[in-house]
Amino acid sequence: MRGTGAGRQRVKTARKRSAQSTRWLARQLNDPYVHRAKAEGYRSRAAFKLIELDERFGLLKGVKRVVDLGIAPGGWSQVVRRQAPGAAIVGIDLLPVDPIDGVTIFEMDFMADKAPGVLMEALGGAPDLVMSDMAANTVGHPQTDALRTMALVETALAFAIDVLRPGGTFVSKVFAGGADAALVAEMKRNFTTVKHAKPPSSRKGSVEWFVVAQGFKGRAVPTDDGAAE
């Protein structure tokens, strides 16, 4: 690789490297957030997405228990550890994740029936924040990829509604266009405010957005006649 006149790094296409991987490497080499992540000890540039969302929405203020869905490689939990050092944090991912001091990590499928129970037992109480950076593996078909990721968002939301403490927050990655109408309606039934955001560190060409639902209203309590109040 070599520098350009503008100070950007150009990557030579190696014989065994595809054009796509060459473009990815060039983007990484010239991405200021990648350099910041390395300089500040974060495992990925994704850490800055949570930092910027926190600056806008105050996600981490006063949190005591946090669930990190799709924790790999660990950048979001690193941010929580720095911003709320006393908080208990549990994370889950299909991929292996190197240990993070103060974070309990499970290498398992969040969609497995036993996953919610495992997370809550480890956390030891209702979380203030459920955060999800999960995305389905892409198959190259935009509509299919969006549907697969939205299924993860729906499952994460159902989990959050089931476990959050009153007043808690749910934040999740979604695709361009945000959560669909039915999902937004479900959030509005259960949270005081629901907003979409694209933090500055999210690449302009990326289809990712984030949905932030705050002020969890709490689960309905059944009355004597079986109805919910």
UniProtKB/TrEMBL annotation:
Region described as Disordered: 1-21
Composition-biased stretches (Basic residues): 9-18
Lineage start: Bacteria, Pseudomonadati, Pseudomonadota, Alphaproteobacteria, Sphingomonadales
Role: Specifically methylates the uridine in position 2552 of 23S rRNA at the 2'-O position of the ribose in the fully assembled 50S ribosomal subunit.
UniProtKB keywords: Cytoplasm, Methyltransferase, rRNA processing, S-adenosyl-L-methionine, Transferase
The species this protein was found in: Sphingomonas ginsenosidimutans
Any one GO cellular component localisation term in the record: cytoplasm
Enzyme class: transferase
Documented EC number(s): 2.1.1.166
Stored InterPro entries: RNA_methyltr_RlmE, RNA_MeTrfase_FtsJ_dom, rRNA-MeTfrase_E, SAM-dependent_MTases_sf
Subcellular location(s) of the protein: Cytoplasm
Pfam families cross-referenced by the UniProt entry: FtsJ
Residues annotated for S-adenosyl-L-methionine binding in this entry: 74, 76, 93, 109, 133
Domain Ribosomal RNA methyltransferase FtsJ positions: 42-216
Protein's name according to its UniProt entry: Ribosomal RNA large subunit methyltransferase E
